[in-house]
């Protein structure tokens, strides 16, 4: 039987979120109904407003309590606390080979606003609307998600800590640990000191990267990057970034990670590489548009440029690992989090946009 939920709905791109009663459709046999306790906010929730049919319910970093399970669900049961991470089909070659982050259908599963078969999970009095964003739409009091997308965790974990990690933190840390596989004493420059970039800095410290350089334009974030493990910080407003990195590492750094979607930052992330170096990018400048790019510097350095999705992470094993690193005091991602009542979602997004908040997390129960 369908049930009612309160959701933050967007009716036009870049418009405000409005609170509305929506109807959650019946569970399929392989689905889980989660009562959302907390949901992280990510820049993807804003970018997607140009990709997902509107009106829509966004949110893709949900954490909460299992309220009900479909008849075929076996991994979780009612009453368990879970994290909801990114969607994957479970059937394509990449998924079958253990690489769900390379799922053939990751774009449609993330942004189409429907289940894999095109059916809707949410409707209003006006009819079906886009839900199933990242197969969860966690800006709501309840969320339907496939069983394979949930990660069971212990009941003692704070919901805000769980909701902070399924996308941005996972992407930043995973880019360093899983994709680039940075090692001890290997040079790493991270461009952008938001939640993704600072998570990459913490992961770089975890593996002993050196030098470990953070680049941004906000002095407070650079100070935090230094506290979290960066050996050097560079304010890009102060002049030639590549020249200053080469003063620190005369032959260039082994790895760079671009997280800011800034055109100059991507050029600098390539320009600071050593011969044979690797530049990872987690978002593209001018997203969805043609980008004026010359591959000359990549060729000249025999370097590589790699697009990274979700930090090449398998959430069921990687997210518990990050939680354990945090418990040990080795990955203090809690320092990135600012919590907000669900009712303050528009303020939280404004403060994320203007840089006041690094990782906003909505608390639903409050």
Keyword list:
12 helices; Quinone Oxidoreductase, Chain A, domain 1; 366 residues; Rossmann fold; alpha/beta; seven-stranded mixed β-sheet; globular; six-stranded parallel β-sheet; 18 strands
3D structure, described in words:
The structure is a single chain. By secondary structure, the protein is an alpha/beta fold. The chain has two domains: 3-163 and 332-363, Medium-chain alcohol dehydrogenases, catalytic domain (Quinone Oxidoreductase, Chain A, domain 1, Alpha-Beta Complex), CATH 3.90.180.10; 168-309, 3-Layer(aba) Sandwich (Rossmann fold), CATH 3.40.50.720. It has helices at 44-47, 93-96, 106-111, 159-163, 165-179, 195-207, 219-227, 241-248, 263-271, 296-300, 315-327, 345-353, and strands spanning 3-10, 17-24, 31-40, 56-57, 62-69, 81-84, 122-124, 127-129, 142-146, 150-153, 188-191, 212-216, 232-235, 253-258, 273-281, 304-307, 337-341, 359-363. The strands form three sheets. Strands 3, 5, 6, 9, 10, 17 and 18 form a seven-stranded mixed beta sheet that branches.
Count structural domains. Answer: 2
Overall structural class, as computed from helix and strand content, comes to: alpha/beta
Biggest sheet statistics: 7 strands, mixed
Radius of gyration: 20 Å
Mean pLDDT: 95
End-to-end distance, in Å?
26 Å
Topology summary:
Layout: E1 3-10, E2 17-24, E3 31-40, H1 44-47, E4 56-57, E5 62-69, E6 81-84, H2 93-96, H3 106-111, E7 122-124, E8 127-129, E9 142-146, E10 150-153, H4 159-163, H5 165-179, E11 188-191, H6 195-207, E12 212-216, H7 219-227, E13 232-235, H8 241-248, E14 253-258, H9 263-271, E15 273-281, H10 296-300, E16 304-307, H11 315-327, E17 337-341, H12 345-353, E18 359-363
Parallel strand pairs: 11-12, 11-14, 12-13, 14-15, 15-16, 17-18
Antiparallel strand pairs: 1-2, 1-4, 2-7, 3-5, 3-9, 3-18, 5-6, 6-10, 7-8
């Amino acid at each position: 039987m369908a049930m009612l939920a309160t959701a933050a709905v967007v009716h036009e791109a870049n418009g405000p979120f409005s609170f509305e009663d929506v109807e959650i459709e019946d569970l399929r046999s392989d689905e889980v109904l989660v009562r959302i306790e907390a949901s992280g906010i990510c820049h993807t929730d804003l970018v997607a407003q140009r990709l997902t049919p509107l009106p829509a319910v966004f949110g893709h970093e949900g954490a909460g309590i299992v309220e009900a399970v479909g008849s075929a669900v076996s991994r979780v049961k009612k009453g368990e606390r879970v994290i909801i991470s990114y969607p994957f089909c479970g059937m394509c070659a990449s998924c079958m080979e253990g690489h769900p982050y390379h799922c053939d259908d990751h774009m449609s599963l993330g942004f189409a606003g429907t289940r894999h078969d095109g059916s809707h999970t949410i409707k209003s009095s006006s009819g079906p609307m886009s839900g199933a964003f990242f197969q969860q739409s966690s800006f709501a009091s309840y969320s339907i998600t496939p069983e394979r997308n949930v990660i069971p965790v212990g009941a003692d974990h704070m919901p805000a800590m769980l909701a902070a990690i399924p996308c941005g933190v996972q992407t930043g840390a995973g880019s360093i640990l899983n994709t680039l596989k940075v090692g001890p004493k290997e040079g790493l420059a991270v461009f952008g000191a938001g939640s993704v970039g600072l998570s990459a800095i913490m992961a770089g410290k975890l593996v002993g990267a050196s030098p470990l350089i953070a680049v941004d334009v906000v002095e407070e974030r650079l100070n935090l990057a230094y506290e979290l493990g960066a050996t050097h910080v560079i304010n890009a407003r102060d002049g030639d970034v590549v020249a200053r990195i080469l003063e620190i590492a005369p032959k260039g750094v082994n790895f760079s990670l671009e997280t800011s979607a800034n055109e100059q930052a991507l050029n600098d992330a390539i320009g600071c590489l050593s011969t044979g170096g690797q530049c990872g990018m987690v978002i593209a400048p001018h997203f969805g548009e043609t980008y004026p790019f010359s591959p000359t510097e990549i060729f000249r350095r025999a370097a590589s440029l790699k697009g990274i999705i979700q930090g090449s992470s398998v959430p069921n094993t990687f997210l518990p690992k990050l939680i354990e690193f945090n418990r040990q005091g080795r990955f203090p991602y809690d320092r990135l989090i600012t919590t907000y009542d669900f009712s303050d979602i528009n303020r939280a997004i404004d403060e994320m946009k203007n840089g006041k908040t690094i990782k906003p997390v909505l608390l639903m129960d409050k």
